Amino acid sequence: MSRAIRIEFEGAHYHVMARGAGRAAVFLDDEDRRDFLVIVGELVKGEAFDVHAFCLMPNHYHLLISTPHAGLSRWMRHVDGDYVRHFNFRHKRVGALWQGRYKAILVQDASYLLECSRYIHLNPNRAKITRPAERYRWSSYRNYVGGLSTVPWYETDLEGARRKQRTIPPICGGR
Question: Does pLDDT of 7 surpass 80?
Fold first, then answer.
């Protein structure tokens, strides 16, 4: 059975997620989480996409991103692949980490965009990891409520991100 064709175009918004194979943990400690965010941050700095919300859970992640250029598949292949190589090397293991290919839902409606951000940010609450949400360090929620920022590269201005004119970025650092 062939894979479904992904809809990719400039300025699109996506809710991207991937889960660990067999629901196994994909982030074993804070260093793993930092390393994943560094990989994502390199692509943001390279202008591959903008991240509007994120949450790293023990066995999966969520990203709400916009693509100033088409090419989501290309960039996510680098995020997931680079992270797996790092994770396997660091933890002296081999084999697949993710449960298949990442999932990307095209976000076309403004109300769904807000609901998607809310869903992502409240993930730790629903999983009973922490309450309130601003206590969870591995989410962009604190960036939105004026708390300590986990990363400097998130983008809260959705309209501004759409208007930016960019050139197609090269693959960052051999990625």
Answer: no
The answer to whether 122 and 134 are in contact (CB under 8 A) is no
Q: In what side-by-side order are the strands of the sheet with 60-67?
A: 50-57, 60-67, 12-19, 103-107
Cα separation, 144 vs 149, whole angstroms: 9
Number of domains the chain is built from = 1
Give Cβ neighbours of residue 47 (< 8 Å, ≥ 6 apart). Answer: 68, 166, 167, 169
Under the banding of pLDDT at 50, 70 and 90, the label for residue 98 is very high
Global model pTM greater than 0.90: no
Tokens in use for 172?
A: 């960052």
Compute CA 12 distance to the chain's CA centroid, rounded to the nearest angstrom: 15
Check which CATH number belongs to the domain holding 134 and give it: 3.30.70.1290
Pairing between strand 60-67 and 50-57? antiparallel
131: domain range? Answer: 12-174
| Helix, strand or coil, per DSSP, at residue 38 | helix
- Among 122, 95, 98, 119, residue whose Cα is nearest residue 107: 119
